[in-house]
Protein 1
Amino acid sequence: MSFLHKNTILLLVLKATVNKQQVMVNKQPVGEGKVLPIFNLSNHQMKQPPNTKRFTFYLWVGLGFIVLGVLSDLSESHDELFRRALNNAWAAVYLTVVNYLLFEYTLPRLSWKRFFSSLLLLALQVFLYSWGSYAWRHIGIGLTVYTPYKTYRFISHEVADRMGYSIESFIFFGIIRHIYNHIRLRQATQQLRIEKQQAELNYLKSQTNPHFLFNTLNNIYSLARDKSDLAPESILRLSKMLRFMLYETGGDYIAIEQELKIISDYLALEKLRYDDSLLVTFNYDIEDMKQAIPPLLLIPLVENAFKHGVSETRSRPFVDIHLTINKRQLVFVVKNSTEELAAESGVKENIGLSNLRRQLELLFTDYNLTVQQGEARFTATLTINLASHV
């Protein structure tokens, strides 16, 4: 009885530690005085069907315990190795089930509020570790599956020996289970982080398209208000661009030649608004036109040049665009005219540049975006190491 009492206290202390860790992991504050439970180990949950994947994990751990026992026997003796391995396998079958019950059913049910029922569960678990293991050994002996290499003068000595062996399995299963849960928790955390970043990236992309459409429709509205004959052509070009955005930019990557085409179409659409006074220069030097980049990554800088530069310039408006990609190093420079007063007010990033900067943070680890307001000139420079894609 004293032996049972000591191990019962040991398991109660272990459960108290586990409960404290579960409270820290499974709850997080959602408001003052409120707590949101993430995992609820209720009786309703315990009534759910057993998790076959979880039990399979315990079977693999049980196999590892058998291998550990065989290696231990090899270090002591090489005689009758097969029978000793069979002994380990017979004991491991029972202990696998008992440890599965302990970690997956007994420990989650323990509660200080249900002290007596918890104490009864722990006593039952100790009984399974000691007398149950003793009975299982003798069942194996009766079936000639288990070969007794050790004899005992008293039953209590054999029960104590089986209890010690069970405690070894408890420690082994507990350590492996803790490592396994830690790895799964890290994987789940990493997956949540990736999903969160992907959701934010999709949100930023969903903002880019309406922002682009809004600005382009403003341009077409200006042409229509002036009753320009170029309005129908503008609408046609816009429809082609929207078709491209709808069907070609849904994936994670597009070829750089497709990005160049959308930039060229946008420039052609913008030119329709202005007379010959607007000077647009667009040149590029790319070693491989099939290189993949995230879709619509460069268009915000081009759009910014017209929306917040050329449209506000009264004389000699210009846009100078240069793109180079060499050895996975992208350099994109956009220069545009501004009014003299803009230089005095300093640089203020709009929603397009802010969204682009955040997209770069989510997509690449090695990049740099700088904007510089000079005298009647605004320069945006984007450099990206395409190989640093997250």
Protein 2
Amino acid sequence: MNFILAPSATRDLDWLSQYFLETNVKAGERLFKALNQRFYNLTQFPNLGKPYSYLNPHIRGLLVEKHIIFYRVTEIEVEIVRIVDRRQDLTQLFITNDL
């Protein structure tokens, strides 16, 4: 199984890279290394994350440091849909953003 990044996840990663470029490059490198490892883990164990059915019945989430990788599993791939700070209002985030 492979993973793909939805456009919303790509935007999240772009924002994170810019943020860490301006604030703390080493912390950004650690986060991106951890994210890449988790993306790989999800291809091997797609149900690793917990369901977030209150946000969307098809969404699962996996905590990585202070962030959550939100994803959905299809028959052929893991689609990463968002990477967000866990302290955000998740309900509002998923109401205002179409997945």
Protein 3
Amino acid sequence: MKNVLLLLLVPLFFAVTLAQDAPITNREIIALLKEGISEDLILHKIQTSGCKCRTAAMDIMTLKGSGASETLISGMISQGHRTATSPARPRSPQIPQIPQIPNSELEEPTFATVFGGYTYGYTRGDFGGAHWNGWNVATSFAINDWLSIAGDVSGHYLPDFPDPIVCLGCFIRVDSSIYTFAAGPQVSTWDRTRKVRGFGHVMVGGGHRNRHVVEERNGLSIVGFSGEPVTQGIGVSPVLLIGGGLDVGVSKHMALRVFQSDWVHHFGDDRFDMFRLSFGVVGRF
């Protein structure tokens, strides 16, 4: 009875082996050959499930000794099996996937911007050290996504700036103003949602400085030296403006200029430097 069960179970075991999807091994091939399983069935198993076999010289001799034909051995080799001496192929590293942002959250490309806001200026030069307040207006027109042509106009004012001219029993009060206008290339970089933009620019242009002179004598204001206020135009001088800033979008067509910082150098006989800090509202179109 025991022998009969073995005769029934052994073919069943090999039938299950052939039906499994796992790659077949040398030991399983040898066992199938000894049980008289057709090489065609073994080759079909190798082709469908793969062959996790060893094909070193000693392994091939063992297979031939078990009755394996050259056809079967060639089929094992052609399946790209792993040999006994071949190192395991390293697994390729997993590249993290960058989450995609829905198109509805992406802002449309900006062709033009218009900025307006407050500006603070600090000058050094023939002023010594002076603090100015004023306005700043700027615009830009895009050539492509990162390059644009920009223009900048500003006005700064300094009331009651004391002039070094002093006379007997009087002193001179000077109200000063500085206007600059410049244009040049501007480069920008955007975040992935196109809401935040950093930019930098280099511009050239001109600057004009005015002084409104008033004489005061013994606390009584006497306008000018001839009874009238005297406005002196210092003239237009070349200007170099270098700076940049950061815009943060609050809607599709509006952003806040968190800051714009510029260095403005006025050339000429009346040369001086102004360090300028501006912030305000930006329209995007």
